[in-house]
Design a protein that fits this description.
With 142 residues, the chain is of the alpha/beta class. It has a domain of 75 residues: Nucleotidyltransferase, domain 5, CATH 3.30.420.270. Helices cover 34% and strands 15% of the residues. Strands 3-2-1-4-5 form a 5-stranded mixed β-sheet. α2 crosses α3. The longest helix is centred in the first third of the chain and has 21 residues. The protein is rod-shaped and about 120 Å long. This is Tol-Pal system protein TolR. Part of the Tol-Pal system, which plays a role in outer membrane invagination during cell division and is important for maintaining outer membrane integrity. Keywords: Cell cycle, Cell division, Cell inner membrane, Cell membrane, Membrane, Transmembrane, Transmembrane helix. One of its GO terms (biological process) is cell division.
Length: 142
């Protein structure tokens, strides 16, 4: 008698990727983003001072108007090393004279981060009163 040798059937390997867990993860992430997205857009009202300053687009050397924390204004002309302290009337007259010579004169307002925003805007208003159209704000690169 011959004994029957049981033979195991070889299973074929599946070459598929089971995507059900990935779909579950994507749905959970979708729900998380749907819940958190409205929370990221919270805002509050800010009473900003008004000004008519425009963006600056020129490549020549600018005139720099500096504003100190106490509100003192100073003017630095291109090529000058030290700023010259001025009151708003003298600054407006000086900038008006410069603007009459060069219509494309650009002015940059530089202020310390502790300066009140209202003082910066009042300096920009003095610049605009001198009929200068190109005014920008100086910032530090991060």
């Amino acid at each position: 008698m011959t004994a029957a040798i049981p033979r195991r059937k070889r299973r074929k390997l599946k070459s598929e990727i089971n995507v059900v867990p990935y779909i579950d993860v994507m749905l959970v992430l979708l729900i998380i983003f749907m819940v958190t997205a409205p929370l990221l857009t919270l805002s509050f009202e800010v009473d900003l001072p008004s000004s008519t300053a425009k963006a600056l687009e020129s490549k020549q050397d600018p005139v720099i108007v500096s504003v100190r924390a106490d509100g003192q204004l100073s003017l630095t002309l291109p090529g000058a090393k030290d700023p010259e302290a001025m009151d708003p009337g003298a600054l407006q007259a000086q900038l008006g004279a410069l603007a009459s010579q060069d219509k494309n004169l650009r002015v940059i307002v530089a202020a310390d981060k502790t300066v009140a925003y209202e003082k910066v805007v009042s300096a920009m208003d003095v610049i605009k009163a001198a009929k200068i159209e190109k005014v920008g704000l100086a910032t530090d690169a991060r």
